[in-house]
Amino acid sequence: MSVEPDLLELIEKCKVGDRRAQFDLYGRFSGLMFAVSLRYTNTRIDAEDVVQNAWVKIFSKLDTFSENNSFEGWMRRIVVNTAITLYRKNKKHANQADISEVLATPQDIDASKQCDFTREELENAISRMPEGYGVVFKLYVIDGYKHKEIAEMLDIEVNTSKSQLSRAKKFL
Amino acid sequence: MKPIKDIFSSHIQGLYKGHEVAAPGSVQDGVFHQLDAINGSAASGGASGGFTSKAVLGAAVVIVGFAWYLMPVSEDQLVVDEVEVEVEVEVEVVEEIAVIEALNEVEMAPEEVEVSVEEPILAEEEIQKTVVTSVVEDVKPEVVVDTNVDVKIIEEAAPTKEAVKIKESQEPEEVLEWVLPAKLEVDE
After folding, report:
1. Which of B10, B19, B39 is best to mutate for the A interface (most A CBs within 10 A)?
2. Measured between CB atoms, does B149 come within 8 Å of chain A?
3. Number of Cβ within a 10 Å radius of residue A93
4. Residues of B in contact with A22 (CB under 8 A)
5. Residue A125: how many CB atoms within 10 A of its CB?
6. ipTM value
7. Which of A4, A9, B21, B182 is the most exposed place for a label (fewest CB within 10 A)?
8. Rounded to an integer, what distance in angstroms lies between the CA atom of residue A142 and that of residue A134?
9. Model confidence, pTM
10. CA A87/CA A132 separation, integer angstroms
């Protein structure tokens, strides 16, 4: 996956500290990044803090971005990591249970067939489930992280990530 | 059987694809203020380091130049020199006191040694006395043994048993009489 030429030019200008280019880059992706931040925080204030810190990291670490990867994915990962750092500071180790292996159950298959809900309905449901389930669910299902990555991000076992995903699906 | 991810996950990902929420203007202001602060501190860090080093060098040059200017003869400086000499004298006195104290300590040490030498001599005299008394006590059994020997000689020389018996009974009494005075003399 390569970066679009105009975006690549914008990134290069941002690397040398061009303030106008930085404004342009921010305006281009700020809505997307703020939506990601809102997904992983409990309050809007937390989301604003997370996305602000994430943008500072984005501009500070532009040199580490590889042009072969997706720039949007790279920025999204920074926002998610920043939000997860805040989540880990505030999290309480409740509702975590290890199981040896989680396989798809008939309930999961039934749930997979019920795909007629909207994003608002899904967010309402996620907000009502235990926080640990919701974070794993969002990381795995919405943002496409692997269980191993989730385990490293949240400092939990891989099987814990799997079990929480399974329980989140059952909760939905 | 594998975890389900296909339809369910793709549907949800589709719901969030391109989903944007307008960020408040305060976030943008905060981001660029923070960037300015980082860049400013980085830039001023190098500049301030150069400025401080130059300022220190300049101040040092001014102080040295001023001191050099004041070096020619002046009353104030002479007074300062005298004060410095007095300070040196005080330091020397302190050192002498320290040396005297050290010498006193050294002189005291031999006195203690002499005292310790006399004490062993007294102890030796006491030991000799005790040795003498012990020898006297040991003499008693030896004297008794000698009487037995004398008795045997008398037995050989005696012509009859009756005479020997009489001598035996008499001679030990005489030997005991000789032993007792010897003890008394030694004890004195």
Report:
1. B19
2. no
3. 8
4. 32, 35
5. 15
6. 0.74
7. A4
8. 11
9. 0.53
10. 10
Q: Which residue has the tokens 């235990």?
A: A130
Could you give the CA distance from residue B125 to residue B90 in angstroms, rounded to a whole number?
Answer: 55
Q: What single string gives the DSSP state of each residue in chain B?
A: -----HHHHHHHHHHHTT---PPPHHHHHHHHHHHHHHHHHHHHHHHHHHHHHHHHHHHHHHHHHHHHHH-SS-HHHHHHHHHHHHHHHHHHHHHHHHHHHHHHHHHHHHHHHHHHHHHHHHHHHHHHHHHHHHHHHHHHHHHHHHHHHHHHHHHHH-SSHHHHHHHHHHHHHHHHHHHHHHHHHHH-
Which residue is closest to A147 within chain B, CA to CA? B3
Position B41, amino acid = S
User: How would you label B107-134 residue by residue, b for 16+ Cβ within 10 Å and e otherwise?
Assistant: eeeeeeeeeeeeeeeeeeeeeeeeeeee
Residue of A141, A143, A146, A159 to mutate for B, most B C-beta atoms under 10 A: A141
- Name the residue in chain A with its Cα closest to that of B24: A48
* Contact indicator for A78, A58 with CB cutoff of 8 Å: yes
The pLDDT of residue B131 is 45
* Residue B102 Cα distances to A27, A165, B88, B92, B113, angstroms: 85, 85, 22, 15, 18
Chain B residue closest to A146 (CA)?
B5
Query: What token pair was written down for B76?
Result: 């104030």
CA distance B74 to B85: 17
